[in-house]
Amino acid sequence: RGSEWQRALGLFQGMLSARVDLDTSAWTAAITACARGGRWLAALSVLGEVVAAGGELDMIMRTAVGSACEKSGQWVAALELFRGIAGARLEVSQVTVSSSIAACAKGGQWQAALQMLEGMTASGEQPNVITLNAAVTACATRGRWPAALGLVASMRRASVRQDTITCNAAVKACDECGQWQVAAELFLGMAAVALQPDAISLNTVLSSCGAAREWQAALALLKQGRARSVQPDVIALHAVTAVCEQLGLWQQAVALVGDSSAAGLEVSIISLSAAARACETGRKWELSLHWLRNAGSFAGSRWQDT
Questions:
Q1: Are 121 and 155 in contact (CB under 8 A)?
Q2: How far is 39 from 138, CA to CA, in rounded Å?
Q3: Which residues pair with 303 in a beta bridge?
Q4: Which residues contact 300 (CB under 8 A, 6 or more apart)?
Q5: Does the keyword Repeat apply (predicted)?
Q6: What percent of the chain has pLDDT over 70?
Q7: Nearest partner of 222 among 253, 179, 193, 195, judged by Cα
Q8: Strand 266-268 vs strand 302-304: parallel, antiparallel, or unpaired?
Q9: Distance between CA 164 and CA 103 in Å, rounded?
Q10: Nearest CA to 133 among 107, 158, 159, 161?
């Protein structure tokens, strides 16, 4: 693929030099080849040639350039592309906007992402769930949880069905700002909108509770996750056993690791060590030493050295 875009661009430039009349399909082929090769600057350059030649910027061209900018994290270029399309009163596709917003998310530019979304809405186009998810994710990268929740609320008002990606991004935004209670409410509220949480949902909300040392909430959410057939993975167990260790909750730590092991879940050395240290804090020296000495043969465990 690396040579494909070079061949296409070379052929395209040769045709320009020979003053060959190019139709839309030729322009589109050159732009698409550059975009597939991740050459966003070359794709934009060809797009500029189209404009200079008075050619038509069709939907495929615009979408390909937007995708190239997104993959390269070029949010400035993506934003300018969006503004150019809007300024020319051309139809803005969902894919183009989603790609542009995703580029902003990678660059941490949540405000630019929201501007694009507002511009799309102002043009009379209704954003779909993919576009809105990209915007929520952009907010999450900077922990802008009020903006993320505002977008989720707007989805409900517009009857756009949110999905697990939507909720996970909103929970992440709350986690970034230490809003563990809001994160927990979002996680628990997934059932109300008939959404199945996944490991990412559970890991993020447990991480949020762990950072706030809210061990009771963490254990309750862990139980809720299991009730919905979402088993904690190594990351989730790390988060909960760590807070138990910090607070010296040796009984809870021992029960957590023991139950997870009995259920056939992966238990890491780090989680076991945290439980052992919790036992030390609780002056349960013998239990702590027993766990550490028998880590490799802990009954029913699937050990992972992470």
A1: no
A2: 23
A3: 267
A4: 261, 262, 264
A5: yes
A6: 85
A7: 253
A8: parallel
A9: 21
A10: 161
Short-list 48, 73, 119, 62, CA closest to 95:
62
Transcribe the chain into DSSP letters. Answer: -HHHHHHHHHHHHHHHHTTPPP-HHHHHHHHHHHHHTT-HHHHHHHHHHHHHTT----HHHHHHHHHHHHHTT-HHHHHHHHHHHHHTTPPPPHHHHHHHHHHHHHTT-HHHHHHHHHHHHHTTPPP-HHHHHHHHHHHHHTT-HHHHHHHHHHHHHTTPPP-HHHHHHHHHHHHHTT-HHHHHHHHHHTGGGT----HHHHHHHHHHHHHTT-HHHHHHHHHHHHHTT----HHHHHHHHHHHHHHT-HHHHHHHHHHHHHTT-EEEHHHHHHHHHHHHHTT-HHHHHHHHHTGGG-TT-EEE--
297: pLDDT confidence band, cut at 50, 70 and 90? low
Neighbours of 152 (CB within 10 A): 22
CB 178 within 8 A of CB 208: yes
User: What does the alpha-carbon distance between residue 97 and residue 125 come to, in Å, rounded to a whole number?
Assistant: 11
Closest CA to 273 of 262, 296, 259: 296
- Whole-model pTM: value is 0.75
Q: Report the amino acid identity of residue 154.
A: S
Reported as a pLDDT band with limits 50, 70 and 90, residue 303 is very low
Which sequence spans correspond to the domains of the chain?
1-72, 75-177, 195-306
